[in-house]
Structures are given as structure tokens and as C-alpha cells.
Amino acid sequence: MFMSYSPICRLSAPPPLFKSVCCVSGRLGVPAVVESSWVWICSYWILRYRKLQRFMIYVHAKGMIVDDEYVLMGSANTNQRSVAGIERYRNSNGQDTTWPGLPSYHHHHITISSKVKVYGYKMSLWAEHLGKTGDEFVDPADLECVNEIAEGILRAARSLD
After folding, report:
1. Assuming Cys at both sites, which of 64, 98, 115, 150 could form a disulfide with 72, CB separation 3.0 to 4.6 Å?
2. How many angstroms separate the Cα of 70 from the Cα of each of 12, 109, 140?
3. 9-18, 86-95, 115-124, 151-160: which has the highest mean pLDDT?
4. Where are any strands of DSSP class E within 22-95?
5. Which residues contact 23 (CB under 8 A, 6 or more apart)?
6. Residue 115: how many CB atoms within 10 A of its CB?
7. 109-127 pLDDT, tens per residue?
């Protein structure tokens, strides 16, 4: 957690700029806890639930779009070490390989056709998860895109209250 969030904490930007993902569910009423043997096992989460009236959302992605040029699908180990090619790793197809051994990673093998397919895949993900597409979603790192998504999430959260 510290390694993941310490770069975010060092940002000089206002919190809404980098906190664009949040729980959009409204606060729920506290349920009556049934006394049973599992209650003491989950006591930490029960106490957090009673305090916050919601559970943490855990996202486990199995796909990654890199530089709008290629897509990694199916590997839970899509991380910096795998992408950097520093060590041998098992790619999405189950082949043991290194960075130079993967032709799909090499920029000479990326065609206009594959870029169009990756762009189409990215835009279909935007449409699926946000319910809309537009020019502001072409560059996800652009502040307009980040702000549009953050404002949409906050509007949805406020409408549930």
C-alpha cells in the first residue's frame, strides 16, 4: 500500500484531481449482526462496515492497454517487472519469454491496423463502463478526461444520497 500510494501523496495537485475513483454507492443502514462463530473472524471488517457503512471495492484487472499500441490480456501478473522485460515471465499466452522475444511488443511489428483495433477496444471499454464516448476520452491522461470522469462519478454518488 505504501509503495502504491506514496507517489500520489507527494503530488502537489488538489485531491479531486487524482482521486477520480471512489465508491459510488450510497451509505447503507447498519444491519443487525447475527451472532455466530464467523463473527469474531471478520470482526475487523464488521467494525469497518459499521463505521463506514460500506465495504472496500477490490478491482483485479486482467487486461492492460499500453501506449495505445498493444493490449495485454489474461495475465494477473501484468506489472512493471513483466512489462519492463527485466526478468523472464509468463505472458498472457502462457509462453515463457522475455521482452525481445515478444514480436507484438516491438514497435516495428505494430501496424496501423493494430493501432485502430486497440483504439476501438479502448473506446468500447469507455462506453461499457461509463455509458458514453467522446473526444475527451481519446487521451486518458489529459486533465479534461480525468476531470470529466471524476465529475461524473461525483454526480452519480451525490444522486444516490
Report:
1. 64
2. 31, 10, 16
3. 115-124
4. 63-66, 70-73, 89-90
5. 54, 57, 157
6. 14
7. 555 676 777 888 888 888 8
Q: Report whether 104 contacts 85 (CB < 8 A).
A: no
The per-residue pLDDT for range 45-85, each reduced to its tens digit, is 556 555 555 544 455 566 777 777 777 665 555 455 555 55
| Burial letters 27-57, b for 16+ CB under 10 A, else e | eeeeeeeeeeeeeeeeeeebeebeeeeeeee
Distance CA 99, CA 108 (A): 14
Quick check: 90 and 75 in contact, CB under 8 A?
Answer: yes
Show the cell assigned to 30.
447498519
